Amino acid sequence: MAEILLPSLGSDMEGATLVAFRRAPGDRVARGDIVAEVETDKGILDVEAYEAGVLERFVAEPGQRVRVGEPIALLRVDGEVASGAAPVVPEPTATPSAGAPVAPASATPAAVAAVAAVEQEREPPRASPLARRRAHELDVDLTTLQGTGRHGTISVEDVERAAAARSSAEAAQAPAAPAPAAKAAEPPEADARARMRRVIAATMERSKREIPHFYLSSTLDLEPALTWLEARNRAASVEERVLPAALFVKAVARAARAIPEANARWTGERVELVGDVHVAMAISLRGGGLVAPAVHHVDRLSLAELMASLGDVASRARGGRLRASEMTDGTIAVTSLGDRGVESVLPIVFPPQVAMIGFGKVVQRPWVVDGAVVPRRVVTVTLAADHRVLDGHRGGLFLEALEAYLTKPEDP
Amino acid sequence: MTADEIKRRLVTHLAKIASDVDVGAIDEHADLRDELDIDSLDFLRFMKAIKEDLGVAVPEEDYAKVRSLAGAAAYVAAKMA
Fold first, then answer.
1. Is A87 helix (H, G, I), strand (E, B) or coil?
2. What does the buried/exposed string (b/e) look like for A306-321 if buried means 16 or more CB atoms within 10 Å of the residue's CB?
3. What is the mean pLDDT of chain A?
4. What is the mean pLDDT of residues A231-248?
5. Judging by DSSP bridges, how do beta strands A294-295 and A279-281 pair with one another?
6. Is B30 on the interface with A (CB under 8 A)?
7. Closest to A307 (Cα-Cα) out of A409, A165, A169, A172
8. Could you tell me if A319 lies within 8 Å of chain B, comparing CB atoms?
9. Nearest to A70, CA basis, from A8, A122, A142, A147
10. Cα separation, A351 vs A364, whole angstroms
């Protein structure tokens, strides 16, 4: 029997109040399904199942205060036979038994973090000195993290990811920054924004200090893709329309498949390729700040599915309803400032990712086609990459692949 | 439906999309993207809302006509007339 635990997005989250269950005992749930809603000091958080199975029973009630790492429900995982006997639920403060839940390798980081919080009662966390120092700076509790380094060692990236996820959640939950005259009246929201700014500052500072960035840019002829898209959208209902942004994100995911080093991480000693392609979308919050929730398995989504996912994630990001896994799962990132009229973007890689692709505004330019100068709509695409993992040649191939996929967006 | 009623309905939809902005205080002749800090995804949501609520499908080639609240209200009113 697996426990569905209250996840943590940071050291300042000690617990939450269970608001409601979204599923009932006996319901089948898939990994990633939302099982419950909890209210933290910073807002509502969706709790997801990190394994597939059948919801056996609840072990907490709506309105109840639950500590991070404590179970809220029991899940009979696939392959497990239902037991007539009531499962033993460990007391919240008891030392976990040998049967304490172990997060699967594919578990969401939030679930891993929650499990880790329970397991850490047995032994202190293994962390690098730099990670310990950074955890102190960012007020991150190491006991709530599970390391992704060698032998589970907590790295600086793990710490900063947890801090960023915490602050992103806080900022997404906070209303827009008030007008200057009203700022003094709303210190909690202003504080959340300030904390988010500090985490962004720390992460970007470290990224620029430690990641040897290099940048490659190409200006791509979008005319064939946009002509195809416009014809597609003319034949579609409003609900089925696809934006150029979806073509960009899809092409990035396909290029990441073709050049897997762009969808990887640097462990400190070697390159570790990441199997799944989860594209983190940089989304600005209207009151200031930034979140980068991941859209999962973009390479497997159709354009229609991707459009739906983008709309959903963007809407929830601004409404403060992101899931824990979305805050931490990104394997490669995309930013676009075209809507704001910016022609080219030189992004900063968000560790532990090793590549971020910036899209500028689609503009019309004179272009040479078959020896003649003609007006064409073009976009400038910039790959920002970690030179420890990608070389210029492979980066160039990445942009080449991106261009090829953008030229034929109709291909699956 | 009167022009004022159409505008009220549009404001209601914009308020849902940019829930953290006082939509009632915007310049109705200004570009919605600047007034509400909305992006292309938000704008598409607005187009979907107009279609669902008022039955008017705005083709992409007409987007320039509905970039402002006043423009959108006039466009919808003309289509519903």
1. coil
2. bbebbbebbbbbbebb
3. 79
4. 94
5. antiparallel
6. no
7. A409
8. yes
9. A8
10. 34
**Axis-axis angle for helices B3-17, B40-54 (nearest 10):** 140
pLDDT reported for residue B29: 93
Cβ atoms within 10 Å, residue A82: 8
Q: Taking CA atoms, what residue in B is nearest to A173?
A: B20
Tens-digit pLDDT profile for residues A83-133: 544 433 333 333 333 332 323 333 333 333 332 333 333 345 666 656 766
Count of CB atoms within 10 A of residue B4's CB?
9
In order of A37, A171, A268, A408, the CA distances from A114 in angstroms are: 16, 21, 25, 43
Phi first, then psi, for residue A119 (nearest 5°) are -65, -25
Quick check: B35 pLDDT over 60?
A: yes
Q: How many whole angstroms separate alpha carbon A166 and alpha carbon B26?
A: 33
Q: Helix B69-80 and helix B40-54: axis angle, to 10°?
A: 30
B71 or A40, which is more confident: B71
| Cα of A310 to nearest chain B Cα, Å | 8
Q: Which of B20, B40, B47 sits opposite A287 (nearest CB)?
A: B20
Given an 8 Å threshold on Cβ–Cβ distance, is A176 in contact with B40? Answer: no
Question: Which of the residue ranges A45-59, A80-94, A138-152, B61-75 would you say has the lowest mean pLDDT?
Answer: A80-94
Of B70, B59, B64, give the one whose Cα is nearest residue B11.
B70
* Cα three-residue angle A99-A105-A106, rounded to 5 degrees: 120
Closest residue in chain A to residue B47, using alpha carbons only = A238
Residue in the block written with tokens 């083709």: B59
Name the burial class of residue A105, with classes exposed (0-12), middle (13-18) and buried (19+) by CB atoms within 10 angstroms of its CB: exposed
What 3-state DSSP class applies to A199?
helix
Residue showing tokens 């172990």? A102
User: Which residue of B44, B48, B51 is in closest CB contact with A243?
Assistant: B44
Q: How far apart are CA A364 and CA A294, in angstroms?
A: 31
Sequential DSSP letters for A293-316: PEETTGGGS-HHHHHHHHHHHHHH
Q: How far is A46 from chain B (nearest CA, A)?
A: 20
Residue A53 zone, left/alpha/beta (φ > 0; ψ -120 to 50; rest) = left
- Residue that wins the pLDDT comparison between A32 and A246: A246
Residues 6+ apart with CB under 8 A from A93: none
**Paired sense of beta strands A65-67 and A15-21, if any:** antiparallel
Q: Which residue bears the tokens 């993992």?
A: A389
Whether A304 has its CB under 8 Å from any CB of chain B: the answer is: no
